[in-house]
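Exercise 3.2. Students should predict the tertiary structure of the chain below and write it as C-alpha coordinates, then compare their answer with the key that follows.

Predict this chain's 3D structure.
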Amino acid sequence: MNRLAAGPVSLVALVATIATADGPPRTVVVLQVPSADDVTTEARTRVEGELRAAGFRVSLLKSTREAAPRDVETAGGELSPLGAFAIFAHPEEGGAVAEIWVSDRLRRKTIIQRANLSETHRDRESEILAVRAVELLRASLAEFWMQSTPPTSGAPSPAEPKRAEGPGTNPTALNARPTTAGAFAAGIGVGVGVGMLDGFRDSTPVWVPAALVSYGWQNGLSLGVEFHGLGPAATVGASAGTAKVEQQLVTADVVKTWWPYWRIVPFVCAGVGAQHVHASGSAAAPYAGEAADDWAFLTDAGLGAALSVRSGFSLVIRTRGVLAWPPTVVRIAQSEAGYFGAPSVLVDAGILGVVP
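Answer key:
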Protein backbone atom coordinates (compact mmCIF):
# COMPACT_ATOMS: atom_id res chain seq x y z
CA MET A 1 0.00 0.00 0.00
CA ASN A 2 1.43 3.36 -0.96
CA ARG A 3 1.84 5.59 2.05
CA LEU A 4 0.81 9.19 1.66
CA ALA A 5 1.82 11.93 4.05
CA ALA A 6 -0.97 12.91 6.45
CA GLY A 7 -2.30 12.94 9.96
CA PRO A 8 -5.77 11.65 10.92
CA VAL A 9 -8.11 12.91 8.21
CA SER A 10 -11.88 13.00 8.02
CA LEU A 11 -13.99 12.05 5.00
CA VAL A 12 -12.95 14.43 2.25
CA ALA A 13 -15.54 14.85 -0.47
CA LEU A 14 -17.65 13.08 -3.00
CA VAL A 15 -17.58 14.04 -6.64
CA ALA A 16 -20.27 12.88 -9.04
CA THR A 17 -21.76 13.13 -12.53
CA ILE A 18 -20.41 14.00 -15.89
CA ALA A 19 -22.74 14.56 -18.85
CA THR A 20 -21.87 13.98 -22.49
CA ALA A 21 -19.77 16.46 -24.45
CA ASP A 22 -22.37 16.81 -27.20
CA GLY A 23 -25.37 17.27 -24.91
CA PRO A 24 -26.11 19.68 -22.07
CA PRO A 25 -23.23 21.17 -20.05
CA ARG A 26 -21.26 18.40 -18.41
CA THR A 27 -21.87 18.56 -14.67
CA VAL A 28 -19.84 17.35 -11.74
CA VAL A 29 -21.46 17.26 -8.31
CA VAL A 30 -19.09 17.64 -5.35
CA LEU A 31 -20.55 16.34 -2.08
CA GLN A 32 -19.07 17.96 1.02
CA VAL A 33 -19.14 16.74 4.63
CA PRO A 34 -19.23 19.11 7.64
CA SER A 35 -16.12 17.57 9.26
CA ALA A 36 -13.71 18.39 6.41
CA ASP A 37 -10.47 20.00 7.71
CA ASP A 38 -7.96 22.29 5.93
CA VAL A 39 -6.13 19.40 4.25
CA THR A 40 -9.23 17.69 2.92
CA THR A 41 -10.76 21.00 1.86
CA GLU A 42 -7.64 21.86 -0.13
CA ALA A 43 -7.64 18.42 -1.78
CA ARG A 44 -11.28 18.84 -2.75
CA THR A 45 -10.58 22.31 -4.16
CA ARG A 46 -7.73 20.94 -6.29
CA VAL A 47 -10.01 18.25 -7.69
CA GLU A 48 -12.66 20.88 -8.47
CA GLY A 49 -10.05 22.93 -10.33
CA GLU A 50 -8.95 19.95 -12.44
CA LEU A 51 -12.56 19.15 -13.32
CA ARG A 52 -13.29 22.73 -14.36
CA ALA A 53 -10.09 22.79 -16.44
CA ALA A 54 -11.34 19.65 -18.20
CA GLY A 55 -14.55 21.44 -19.17
CA PHE A 56 -16.96 20.26 -16.48
CA ARG A 57 -19.41 22.40 -14.56
CA VAL A 58 -19.09 21.80 -10.80
CA SER A 59 -22.09 21.89 -8.45
CA LEU A 60 -21.61 21.66 -4.66
CA LEU A 61 -23.94 19.55 -2.51
CA LYS A 62 -23.75 18.46 1.12
CA SER A 63 -23.53 14.92 2.48
CA THR A 64 -22.87 13.19 5.80
CA ARG A 65 -20.29 10.62 6.84
CA GLU A 66 -22.99 7.98 7.29
CA ALA A 67 -24.61 8.61 3.91
CA ALA A 68 -21.37 8.98 1.93
CA PRO A 69 -20.83 5.29 0.97
CA ARG A 70 -24.32 5.17 -0.50
CA ASP A 71 -24.10 8.61 -2.10
CA VAL A 72 -21.00 7.71 -4.10
CA GLU A 73 -23.12 5.31 -6.17
CA THR A 74 -26.48 7.14 -6.08
CA ALA A 75 -25.90 10.90 -5.67
CA GLY A 76 -27.08 13.22 -8.43
CA GLY A 77 -29.42 10.70 -10.03
CA GLU A 78 -31.61 13.48 -11.37
CA LEU A 79 -28.60 14.66 -13.42
CA SER A 80 -28.16 11.25 -15.13
CA PRO A 81 -24.54 10.95 -13.98
CA LEU A 82 -21.94 9.00 -15.90
CA GLY A 83 -19.59 8.62 -12.97
CA ALA A 84 -18.94 9.39 -9.33
CA PHE A 85 -15.92 9.97 -7.14
CA ALA A 86 -15.22 9.88 -3.39
CA ILE A 87 -12.31 10.18 -0.98
CA PHE A 88 -12.78 8.62 2.44
CA ALA A 89 -10.31 9.00 5.27
CA HIS A 90 -10.60 7.47 8.70
CA PRO A 91 -8.16 7.25 11.63
CA GLU A 92 -6.26 4.07 12.35
CA GLU A 93 -3.45 3.23 14.73
CA GLY A 94 -0.38 5.25 13.79
CA GLY A 95 -2.18 7.59 11.41
CA ALA A 96 -5.09 7.22 9.01
CA VAL A 97 -6.18 5.36 5.90
CA ALA A 98 -7.61 7.01 2.80
CA GLU A 99 -10.01 5.18 0.47
CA ILE A 100 -10.40 6.65 -3.02
CA TRP A 101 -13.57 5.57 -4.83
CA VAL A 102 -14.39 6.02 -8.53
CA SER A 103 -17.78 4.77 -9.69
CA ASP A 104 -18.51 4.27 -13.38
CA ARG A 105 -22.29 4.56 -13.59
CA LEU A 106 -22.50 3.32 -17.18
CA ARG A 107 -20.54 0.12 -16.53
CA ARG A 108 -21.86 -0.28 -12.97
CA LYS A 109 -18.36 -0.68 -11.62
CA THR A 110 -16.59 0.98 -8.73
CA ILE A 111 -12.82 1.01 -8.22
CA ILE A 112 -11.44 1.50 -4.71
CA GLN A 113 -7.82 2.30 -3.87
CA ARG A 114 -6.48 2.44 -0.33
CA ALA A 115 -3.45 4.38 0.94
CA ASN A 116 -2.00 4.81 4.40
CA LEU A 117 -1.63 8.34 5.69
CA SER A 118 0.98 9.47 8.23
CA GLU A 119 2.46 12.66 9.62
CA THR A 120 5.33 12.49 7.13
CA HIS A 121 5.20 15.19 4.41
CA ARG A 122 1.92 16.54 5.75
CA ASP A 123 2.31 19.70 3.66
CA ARG A 124 2.06 17.64 0.45
CA GLU A 125 -0.75 15.26 1.39
CA SER A 126 -3.54 17.30 -0.22
CA GLU A 127 -1.58 17.43 -3.50
CA ILE A 128 -1.00 13.67 -3.45
CA LEU A 129 -4.65 12.87 -2.69
CA ALA A 130 -5.83 15.23 -5.43
CA VAL A 131 -3.53 13.64 -8.02
CA ARG A 132 -4.69 10.14 -7.15
CA ALA A 133 -8.30 11.26 -7.35
CA VAL A 134 -8.00 13.04 -10.69
CA GLU A 135 -6.04 10.22 -12.33
CA LEU A 136 -8.57 7.59 -11.26
CA LEU A 137 -11.49 9.72 -12.41
CA ARG A 138 -9.81 10.47 -15.73
CA ALA A 139 -9.03 6.78 -16.34
CA SER A 140 -12.59 5.72 -15.58
CA LEU A 141 -14.25 8.40 -17.74
CA ALA A 142 -11.54 9.05 -20.30
CA GLU A 143 -13.96 9.34 -23.24
CA PHE A 144 -15.67 12.34 -21.59
CA TRP A 145 -12.49 14.24 -20.66
CA MET A 146 -12.39 17.15 -23.12
CA GLN A 147 -8.74 18.10 -22.82
CA SER A 148 -5.57 16.51 -21.61
CA THR A 149 -4.81 18.74 -18.63
CA PRO A 150 -1.77 17.92 -16.53
CA PRO A 151 -2.27 16.81 -12.90
CA THR A 152 -2.23 19.36 -10.10
CA SER A 153 0.86 21.50 -10.44
CA GLY A 154 3.75 20.41 -8.28
CA ALA A 155 2.13 17.12 -7.20
CA PRO A 156 3.74 13.76 -7.94
CA SER A 157 2.25 11.55 -10.63
CA PRO A 158 1.02 8.07 -9.73
CA ALA A 159 3.45 6.82 -12.39
CA GLU A 160 6.27 8.06 -10.12
CA PRO A 161 5.50 6.37 -6.79
CA LYS A 162 8.88 7.19 -5.23
CA ARG A 163 8.02 10.89 -5.12
CA ALA A 164 4.85 10.11 -3.11
CA GLU A 165 6.76 8.18 -0.46
CA GLY A 166 8.25 9.67 2.64
CA PRO A 167 11.18 8.37 4.68
CA GLY A 168 10.46 5.15 6.50
CA THR A 169 7.41 4.27 4.44
CA ASN A 170 6.58 0.75 3.33
CA PRO A 171 5.50 0.97 -0.34
CA THR A 172 3.19 -1.84 -1.45
CA ALA A 173 0.49 -2.05 -4.11
CA LEU A 174 -2.71 -0.15 -3.43
CA ASN A 175 -5.56 -2.42 -2.43
CA ALA A 176 -7.85 -1.81 -5.41
CA ARG A 177 -11.00 -3.84 -5.97
CA PRO A 178 -13.91 -3.49 -8.42
CA THR A 179 -17.22 -3.61 -6.60
CA THR A 180 -20.80 -2.44 -6.74
CA ALA A 181 -21.49 -3.43 -3.15
CA GLY A 182 -21.49 -1.25 -0.09
CA ALA A 183 -20.15 -2.17 3.32
CA PHE A 184 -20.12 -5.80 4.41
CA ALA A 185 -23.59 -6.97 5.59
CA ALA A 186 -25.06 -3.46 5.09
CA GLY A 187 -28.77 -3.88 4.40
CA ILE A 188 -31.18 -6.80 4.79
CA GLY A 189 -29.33 -10.10 4.66
CA VAL A 190 -30.26 -13.78 4.36
CA GLY A 191 -27.74 -16.58 4.73
CA VAL A 192 -27.51 -20.37 4.72
CA GLY A 193 -24.67 -22.68 5.68
CA VAL A 194 -23.54 -25.62 7.76
CA GLY A 195 -21.66 -25.84 11.03
CA MET A 196 -19.94 -28.37 13.26
CA LEU A 197 -20.63 -28.30 17.02
CA ASP A 198 -18.06 -30.01 19.21
CA GLY A 199 -18.12 -30.10 23.01
CA PHE A 200 -15.09 -30.15 25.29
CA ARG A 201 -16.62 -32.93 27.38
CA ASP A 202 -18.28 -36.20 26.33
CA SER A 203 -20.80 -35.06 23.71
CA THR A 204 -20.23 -36.23 20.15
CA PRO A 205 -19.41 -33.65 17.40
CA VAL A 206 -22.43 -33.10 15.16
CA TRP A 207 -23.09 -31.32 11.85
CA VAL A 208 -25.81 -28.68 12.08
CA PRO A 209 -27.35 -26.82 9.11
CA ALA A 210 -27.64 -23.06 9.68
CA ALA A 211 -29.94 -20.23 8.56
CA LEU A 212 -29.50 -16.51 9.21
CA VAL A 213 -31.38 -13.23 8.80
CA SER A 214 -29.59 -9.96 9.49
CA TYR A 215 -29.60 -6.20 9.13
CA GLY A 216 -26.45 -4.09 8.89
CA TRP A 217 -25.27 -0.51 8.59
CA GLN A 218 -22.51 1.09 6.51
CA ASN A 219 -20.32 1.58 9.59
CA GLY A 220 -19.61 -2.17 9.89
CA LEU A 221 -22.18 -2.99 12.60
CA SER A 222 -24.89 -5.60 12.00
CA LEU A 223 -27.44 -7.59 13.97
CA GLY A 224 -28.48 -11.12 13.10
CA VAL A 225 -30.71 -13.96 14.26
CA GLU A 226 -29.27 -17.40 13.49
CA PHE A 227 -30.65 -20.91 13.78
CA HIS A 228 -28.56 -24.11 13.97
CA GLY A 229 -30.18 -27.52 14.01
CA LEU A 230 -32.16 -30.17 12.11
CA GLY A 231 -28.98 -32.11 11.41
CA PRO A 232 -28.19 -35.75 12.29
CA ALA A 233 -28.73 -36.75 15.91
CA ALA A 234 -25.82 -37.52 18.19
CA THR A 235 -25.74 -40.94 19.85
CA VAL A 236 -24.56 -41.39 23.43
CA GLY A 237 -24.46 -44.59 25.39
CA ALA A 238 -23.86 -46.31 28.70
CA SER A 239 -23.93 -49.90 29.91
CA ALA A 240 -27.70 -49.79 30.38
CA GLY A 241 -28.65 -48.39 26.96
CA THR A 242 -28.27 -45.61 24.38
CA ALA A 243 -29.91 -42.30 23.55
CA LYS A 244 -30.25 -40.27 20.38
CA VAL A 245 -29.92 -36.56 21.04
CA GLU A 246 -31.04 -33.71 18.79
CA GLN A 247 -29.79 -30.18 19.52
CA GLN A 248 -30.98 -26.82 18.19
CA LEU A 249 -29.52 -23.38 18.85
CA VAL A 250 -31.10 -19.97 18.27
CA THR A 251 -28.92 -16.89 18.83
CA ALA A 252 -29.20 -13.14 18.35
CA ASP A 253 -25.71 -11.85 17.54
CA VAL A 254 -23.99 -8.48 17.18
CA VAL A 255 -21.27 -8.42 14.49
CA LYS A 256 -18.69 -5.63 14.23
CA THR A 257 -15.91 -4.97 11.74
CA TRP A 258 -13.73 -1.86 11.48
CA TRP A 259 -12.93 -2.51 7.79
CA PRO A 260 -16.37 -3.04 6.16
CA TYR A 261 -15.20 -2.14 2.61
CA TRP A 262 -12.30 -4.60 2.38
CA ARG A 263 -12.64 -7.59 0.07
CA ILE A 264 -11.71 -9.87 2.98
CA VAL A 265 -13.50 -8.55 6.07
CA PRO A 266 -12.45 -9.76 9.54
CA PHE A 267 -14.99 -9.30 12.32
CA VAL A 268 -15.84 -10.09 15.93
CA CYS A 269 -19.23 -11.30 17.17
CA ALA A 270 -21.10 -12.04 20.37
CA GLY A 271 -24.66 -12.93 21.22
CA VAL A 272 -27.26 -14.57 23.43
CA GLY A 273 -29.97 -17.10 22.71
CA ALA A 274 -31.49 -20.44 23.66
CA GLN A 275 -30.58 -24.12 23.38
CA HIS A 276 -33.10 -26.92 22.92
CA VAL A 277 -32.12 -30.55 23.48
CA HIS A 278 -34.38 -33.52 22.71
CA ALA A 279 -33.22 -36.95 23.92
CA SER A 280 -34.87 -40.24 23.03
CA GLY A 281 -33.53 -43.28 24.90
CA SER A 282 -33.64 -47.04 24.57
CA ALA A 283 -32.61 -49.39 27.37
CA ALA A 284 -32.50 -53.02 28.33
CA ALA A 285 -34.72 -54.43 31.06
CA PRO A 286 -35.37 -53.61 33.79
CA TYR A 287 -35.00 -50.05 32.42
CA ALA A 288 -37.35 -48.41 29.94
CA GLY A 289 -36.48 -45.86 27.30
CA GLU A 290 -37.87 -42.37 27.67
CA ALA A 291 -37.96 -39.12 25.69
CA ALA A 292 -37.25 -35.76 27.26
CA ASP A 293 -36.76 -32.11 26.27
CA ASP A 294 -34.65 -29.45 27.91
CA TRP A 295 -34.17 -25.72 27.31
CA ALA A 296 -31.29 -23.52 28.45
CA PHE A 297 -30.08 -19.93 28.13
CA LEU A 298 -27.13 -19.65 25.70
CA THR A 299 -24.22 -17.26 25.16
CA ASP A 300 -21.65 -17.20 22.37
CA ALA A 301 -18.67 -15.11 21.22
CA GLY A 302 -16.06 -15.49 18.51
CA LEU A 303 -14.23 -14.33 15.40
CA GLY A 304 -14.86 -14.65 11.70
CA ALA A 305 -14.07 -13.42 8.20
CA ALA A 306 -16.08 -12.71 5.07
CA LEU A 307 -14.91 -12.85 1.45
CA SER A 308 -16.83 -10.83 -1.16
CA VAL A 309 -17.51 -13.20 -4.07
CA ARG A 310 -19.76 -10.89 -6.09
CA SER A 311 -21.99 -7.86 -5.61
CA GLY A 312 -24.18 -8.45 -2.56
CA PHE A 313 -22.85 -11.96 -1.80
CA SER A 314 -20.14 -13.00 0.64
CA LEU A 315 -18.66 -16.28 1.84
CA VAL A 316 -18.65 -16.15 5.65
CA ILE A 317 -16.61 -18.38 7.99
CA ARG A 318 -16.96 -18.06 11.76
CA THR A 319 -15.66 -19.78 14.91
CA ARG A 320 -17.46 -19.26 18.23
CA GLY A 321 -17.32 -20.48 21.78
CA VAL A 322 -20.77 -21.56 23.01
CA LEU A 323 -21.96 -22.06 26.59
CA ALA A 324 -25.41 -23.01 27.93
CA TRP A 325 -26.59 -21.95 31.38
CA PRO A 326 -26.85 -24.65 32.65
CA PRO A 327 -25.64 -27.37 30.22
CA THR A 328 -27.98 -30.29 29.56
CA VAL A 329 -26.82 -33.63 30.97
CA VAL A 330 -28.16 -36.83 29.40
CA ARG A 331 -28.33 -39.70 31.92
CA ILE A 332 -28.85 -43.39 31.21
CA ALA A 333 -29.71 -45.39 34.35
CA GLN A 334 -28.19 -42.66 36.53
CA SER A 335 -24.96 -42.67 34.49
CA GLU A 336 -23.99 -39.39 32.82
CA ALA A 337 -23.72 -40.27 29.14
CA GLY A 338 -23.37 -36.86 27.47
CA TYR A 339 -23.18 -33.12 27.99
CA PHE A 340 -24.81 -30.63 25.64
CA GLY A 341 -24.18 -26.91 25.98
CA ALA A 342 -21.13 -27.40 28.16
CA PRO A 343 -18.25 -25.28 26.78
CA SER A 344 -18.35 -26.06 23.05
CA VAL A 345 -16.90 -24.83 19.78
CA LEU A 346 -19.17 -23.98 16.85
CA VAL A 347 -17.47 -23.62 13.46
CA ASP A 348 -19.65 -22.77 10.48
CA ALA A 349 -19.42 -21.58 6.89
CA GLY A 350 -22.05 -20.26 4.54
CA ILE A 351 -23.18 -17.71 1.98
CA LEU A 352 -24.70 -14.35 2.98
CA GLY A 353 -26.72 -12.36 0.46
CA VAL A 354 -27.58 -8.72 1.18
CA VAL A 355 -30.13 -6.35 -0.34
CA PRO A 356 -28.95 -2.74 0.37
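Discussion points: The two ends are 29 Å apart (CA to CA). The CA atoms of residues 79 and 190 lie 34 Å apart.
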